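Subject: design request, 382 residues
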């Protein structure tokens, strides 16, 4: 039977109404439906087709809000078309109402399994058809509104997350530089450690997320020094054993400030700065993966591969990977930089000194990567 395609048969309205597509191989049924619906003046747009091919043409060329489809047709049946629609992202949410004269009770089950919204039995009752379509359209409007809102909130959340993440990064870098201003004449030390650490992490073949995080968090490795008395930070003579023990507390102090609890405490008899203590104990902070990563580095960057480091004497891979990387980066830059207790060494001198200590101090695999890219590291120093 020749296909009949009747499009845009609708009562004129200011804003075109929803588009309903009817698919049935019986032209007399389609003509009856058309006459009945136009008499009701519902403001909908209608398309009537007698083949799956023509139905697909309508779907390709215009927006369809509901498809009402027969099951048995000469070419492909309604179930076959329904499955095709559900497998295509363009129409996987299109509401489909199956309309059939077949009485098999398993048809509705199959229709629902394939994603149909409802099943109507022939002969079609005009009131039932209109009621079903109205219900389907109402649900579709809710779904569209929900998707629009979800899309808006996802976009808003993404923008907010980016802004929040950027603010976290900026806060960390500013805090790191503030600590370095207080404890060193060279505030670029912390920035360089970040660059060295990221380069080493990249050369180790670690995930981009890890190398990006270590770039941001490694500058906070010495943040605990903000709680060390000035008399020790700026002392030009050698430290006594007691003073050296106090200086070594900066690892635990840094962890206390940045770690999961972020509550300052007394560490080995050293009182944390009162203002810092008050701020960090007053607030209950939420999860912040950047600060927690920085806390791990602050606590572990002075641990040595052979277990002779501090504060806990961890050995080998007991030391977090981030701490093992930053240990190398920090040592290199410390050797290159003039301090009150030592001169500044050249690049070659620094690498030679580190090489002599590598079996005791550094993870051998990471140090090997450091040596392989040491020329690039030398260019980072500024």
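Subject: RE: design request

Done. Sequence follows.
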């Amino acid at each position: 039977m020749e296909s009949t395609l009747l499009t845009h048969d609708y009562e004129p309205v200011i804003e075109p109404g929803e588009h309903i597509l009817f698919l049935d191989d019986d032209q007399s049924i389609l003509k009856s439906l058309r006459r009945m619906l136009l008499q009701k003046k519902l403001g909908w747009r209608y398309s009537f087709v007698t083949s799956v091919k023509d139905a697909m043409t309508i779907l390709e060329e215009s927006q369809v809000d509901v498809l009402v489809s027969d099951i048995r047709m000469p070419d492909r049946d309604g179930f076959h078309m329904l499955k095709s629609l559900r497998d295509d992202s363009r129409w996987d949410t299109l509401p489909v109402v199956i309309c059939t004269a077949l009485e098999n009770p398993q048809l509705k089950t199959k229709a629902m399994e394939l994603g149909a919204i409802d099943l109507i039995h022939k002969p079609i009752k005009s009131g039932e058809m209109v009621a079903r379509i109205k219900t389907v359209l109402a649900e579709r409007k809710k779904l569209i509104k929900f998707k629009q809102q979800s899309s808006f909130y996802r976009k808003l959340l993404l923008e907010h997350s980016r802004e929040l993440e950027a603010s976290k990064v900026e806060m960390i870098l500013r805090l790191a530089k503030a600590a370095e201003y207080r404890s060193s004449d060279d505030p670029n030390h912390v920035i360089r450690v970040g660059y060295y650490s990221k380069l080493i992490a990249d050369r180790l073949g670690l995930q981009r997320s890890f190398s990006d995080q270590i770039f941001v968090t490694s500058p906070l490795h010495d943040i605990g020094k903000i709680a060390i008395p000035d008399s020790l930070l700026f002392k030009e003579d050698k430290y006594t054993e007691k003073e050296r023990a106090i200086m070594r507390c900066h690892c635990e102090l840094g962890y206390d400030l940045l770690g999961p609890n972020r509550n300052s405490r007394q560490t080995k008899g050293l009182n944390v700065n009162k203002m810092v203590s008050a701020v960090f104990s007053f607030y209950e902070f939420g999860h912040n993966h950047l600060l927690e990563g920085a806390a791990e580095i602050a606590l572990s960057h002075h641990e040595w591969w052979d277990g002779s480091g501090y504060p806990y004497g961890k050995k080998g891979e007991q030391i977090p990977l981030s701490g093992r990387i930053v240990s190398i980066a920090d040592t290199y830059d410390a050797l290159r930089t003039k301090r009150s207790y030592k001169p500044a060494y050249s690049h070659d001198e620094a690498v030679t000194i580190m090489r002599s200590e590598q079996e005791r101090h550094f993870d051998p695999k990471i140090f090997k990567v450091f040596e392989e890219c040491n020329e690039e590291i030398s260019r980072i120093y500024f």
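The two ends are 83 Å apart (CA to CA).
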